[in-house]
Amino acid sequence: MKSIIANLNKRFDNKVRLGIMSLLMVEEWVEFTRIKQMLELTDGRLASHVKVLEDEGFLILKKEFVGRKPKTSYKATNLGKKAFQEHLIALEKLIKSLD
């Protein structure tokens, strides 16, 4: 018998990564500082979770300078969007199975 949690993606089992991907699903590019503020994270904590998602190919980053200040932004890849949508579908099925 297949486990009802088998289709949940382990990369999204953390609330920070879940929050990051949720933001990236509704906006094309999101700045590091905006994610940090919205999720109330430290620079280091956000950076470590972004790295996990980047290593999986779920997001890409863009670094640029605005004036003399660096600006880092993130965008969900097609792979990341697909994986996140599949994770959400699996969560829905899990919830419905409990009714």
Tell me what you see in this structure:
This protein is of the alpha+beta class and 99 residues long. It has one domain: Arc Repressor Mutant, subunit A, CATH 1.10.10. Helix content is 54%, strand content 18%. It is built from 4 helices and 3 strands; from the N terminus they run H-E-H-H-E-E-H. It has helices spanning 15-26, 32-39, 43-55, 78-97; strands spanning 30-31, 59-66, 69-76. Strands 1-3-2 form a 3-stranded antiparallel beta sheet. The longest helix has 20 residues, at 78-97. It is elongated, with a radius of gyration of 15 Å. The two termini are 19 Å apart. 17% of the residues are buried. The mean pLDDT is 93.
Topology:
Elements: H1 15-26, E1 30-31, H2 32-39, H3 43-55, E2 59-66, E3 69-76, H4 78-97
Antiparallel strand pairs: 1-3, 2-3
Write down the secondary-structure element order: HEHHEEH
Just give the CATH class. Mainly Alpha
According to CATH, the fold-level topology is Arc Repressor Mutant, subunit A
What is the distance, rounded to the nearest whole angstrom, between the alpha carbons of the first and last residues?
19 Å
What general outline do the C-alpha atoms trace? elongated
Domain module count: 1
The whole-number mean of residue pLDDT values reads 93
How are strands sequenced across the largest beta sheet?
1-3-2
Structural class by SSE content: alpha+beta
Please identify which CATH superfamily we are dealing with. Winged helix-like DNA-binding domain superfamily/Winged helix DNA-binding domain
CA-based gyration radius: 15 Å
